[in-house]
Amino acid sequence: MIRRAFFDRSVHEVAPDLIGVTLLVDGVGGPIVEVEAYNETDPASHGFRGRTPRNAVMFGPPGYAYVYRSYGVHWCLNLVCEEEGTAAAVLIRALEPLHGVERMQARRRTDEPRLLAAGPGRLCQALGVTGEHDGLPLDQPPFELRPRTGQPTIASGPRIGITLAADYPWRYVLAGSRFLSRALPRA
DNA sequence: CAGTGGATGCTCT
DNA sequence: GAGCATCCACTGT
Hints:
By secondary structure, the protein is α+β, with helices and mostly antiparallel strands. The protein has helices at about 10-20, 55-60, 100-110, 120-125, and strands at about 20-25, 30-40, 65-70, 75-80, 90-95, 145, 155, 170-175. β4 (about 75-80) and β5 form a beta hairpin. α3 packs across α4 (about 120-125). The longest helix has 8 residues, at about 10-20. It binds a DNA duplex through β3, β4 and α4.
């Protein structure tokens, strides 16, 4: 069980430490393979321009879920980090489908493992995450976070789908995973 | 394969 | 009224 204190650190420490951690929502999920860090010094972050009704959870205490709607269609799940009053969170972008695969297949309407949870919108659809999860604590049901067992090899690169601060290397992935939303650009 | 554009709704200026 | 921390279908090789 991941404890609340795990998130009471810089997003740049928490984000790579989340690679390999098993994320479950109502028992459905698997090991996280791709995340992105956002904080309030970051022009691409929702929190950069201050607190609003949408991003309020980002400014709250660490260890909670920040869920927002993207492009009017998809939901995206973030894990809030750092101390209360700062806007910092890690966007969960992809995981390896391992637990509750049948429920993921039904929700996503595909059997293709690579298309179940590769990308923040797909991941939320597969795990059943919606705006109703915004503000919920991560150490209580329906959420469950299980520590990783080994030490994964982690790589980093630029984040995806943003225009501002696009060169910050704040995307962290499990090196060589075939469940990423996209491969890392070549160095 | 790569590139393009539409869906769709909410947030903020 | 513009702009998205996306995904998918469709085009043309």
